[in-house]
Amino acid sequence: MSTKDLTQNAPDQPGLRKGMEYKWIALSVTTIGSLMAAIDSTIVILALPQMMVDLHADLIEMIWVIMGYILVSTVFLLTFGRMADMFGRVRMYNLGFVVFTLGSALCGISANVDQMILFRLVQGSGAAMMVVNSVAILTEVFPPDERGRALGINAITWAAGGVLGPILGGLILNAGDWRWIFFINIPIGLIGALWGYIALKEMSTPKKGEHFDIPGAIALSISLISLLLALTLGIAFAWTSPPILLLFLSFVVFLVLFLIWEGRTADPMLDFSLFRERVYTFSVLSAMLQALALFAVNFLIVFYLQAVRGFDPLKAALLLIPLPLVTAVMAPFSGWLADRIGARLPATLGLLIQGVALGWFTQITLATPYPQIAVGLAVMGLGGGLFYPANTSAAMNASPRHRLGVASATLATLRQAGMVTSFALSLAVAAGSLPRDVMMQLFVGTNVSLGSSIMSAFVVGMHSAFLVSLLLCILAAGISVVRGKENRKQPNPVAGSES
User: Fold this and answer.
1) What share of the chain is helix, strand, coil (3-state, %, to 5)?
2) Residue whose C-alpha is closest to residue 37's, from 198, 188, 254
3) Who's near 230: CB < 8 A, 6+ residues apart?
4) Residue 140 to residue 491: CA distance in whole angstroms
5) Which of 30, 51, 128, 496 is most buried by its number of CB atoms within 10 A?
6) What is the CATH number of the domain that holds 135?
7) SS3 category, 288
8) 164-187 pLDDT, tens per residue?
């Protein structure tokens, strides 16, 4: 299928612009969904103390209000990606909008913490449907020489969403009740769902005769749930405690069972032929290592700004703005650059620049002026803006057209797993130097004050975490630079794609 054929397959229907302009309509829909999913991963943070009182909950239950969303939106990515390839990516994406909006409404009317956690799981499942299909849809509708720019624009939502979440949450709390954090999603979600239903149309016909791999989905879900629970609960129960060791064992056992089953079943959930393409494999590994190295940085800096510098949670979130701001400016340029010269140079350069930022952060002291921190955040955003769209474009360009859902899901799953592991690292650093009750209070947005010895210990631990992240970032850059030269002349160049 040529680039011209791909473009001409855009829907031609009343109410929509024809031909090439359909791709921008698709970008507008997927951007709304991605932004909502990204914002809601963090928007509840500042509301947790008030929610804890109103819902008669404790700190651990409040932490699960956040972690439940992240857990579900990670575990079901590959499941929804496979279902999208079988039943239609647009159909699954639009369903995600509806489920996410319904989950938001239910969260807003929750009467107790058990309901809140349950409905956050619903919300997270809707987010997973949108996340995994937004990249696949963009890959499908944009020709290769414009795909990087589109993914760069989409990447802005993820860079901005994580930081905008606490800011928007704080503004909403200043104006009204915490329930409006969820209710505000309802009109936006309804508009997005309606716009998606009207504007988006399937561009490819799913293959007939394939069956959904239920045993594989169950084994993978149990494996990922075990891993994520072990990583997030390891702080509370100690890494060598029997419950945590059993969870790690469950992760290994069910992962092995999943891999054995996938190698034998006729219609596997994970298409291992994806990894025959060197560019795809190395792009996915780079993304996972980058997330593992850098996702903890935001949390550690926020902990530092609150616990060491004494800023309130909203101000600490506002002070992170240089990172997403620079990323937002750089991401479209990086995508444009990747469209013209390939992803290897901008992606690798971005990782090296982020490594420089990590080295910069190892110089933070108890009294480092904020402008110095802001410079580090801006450099981090510069590197991220170069890496994200270029690397994602390379991975998706190397994916067969009929497996875009699974390809996007695999990339997102490993990246999310890296993020959660990095998050656990940040908590481990905090747990090693902060009293446990203080760490929990900081996590749910409570302003606390510490003695100088504890603050000094935290800064030392933070430096150690940044050094580990620096090594991981260098490793990711090494993998990125040897990924090979991608073929950008065909829409989806892997053997086995649809004719």
Assistant:
1) 80, 0, 20
2) 188
3) 244, 247, 248, 251
4) 8
5) 128
6) 1.20.1250.20
7) helix
8) 777 787 788 777 788 988 998 888
> Residue 11 and residue 31: Cα distance in Å, rounded?
19
Helix, strand, or coil (residue 45): helix
Q: Is there a contact between 214 and 107 (Cβ–Cβ < 8 Å)? A: no
For residue 463, being part of any structural domain is answered with yes
At residue 227, does pLDDT exceed 60?
Answer: yes
Where residue 9 falls among pLDDT bands split at 50, 70, 90?
very low
Range of the structural domain that residue 245 is part of: 213-268
Sign of torsion over alpha carbons 430, 422, 63, 230:
negative
The reported pLDDT for the residue numbered 494 is 37
Assigned domain for 208 exists = no
At residue 5 the predicted structure's pLDDT band, cuts being 50, 70 and 90, is: very low
372 and 254 in a common domain? no
Alpha-carbon torsion 452, 458, 461, 462, what sign? negative
- Do 137 and 147 lie in a common domain? yes
| Residue 299 and residue 242 share a domain | no
In the chain, the number of structural domains is 2
Q: Which amino acid is at 311?
A: F
Residues in contact with 466: Cβ distance below 8 Å, sequence separation at least 6, in sequence order: 297, 300, 358, 359, 361, 362
Question: 493 lies in a domain?
Answer: no
The answer on 332 and 476 residing in a single domain is yes
Nearest to 294 by CA among 374, 373, 224, 351: 351
Examine residue 486 and state whether it is found in any structural domain, yes or no: no
Residues in the chain: 499
Average pLDDT over residues 59-81: 81
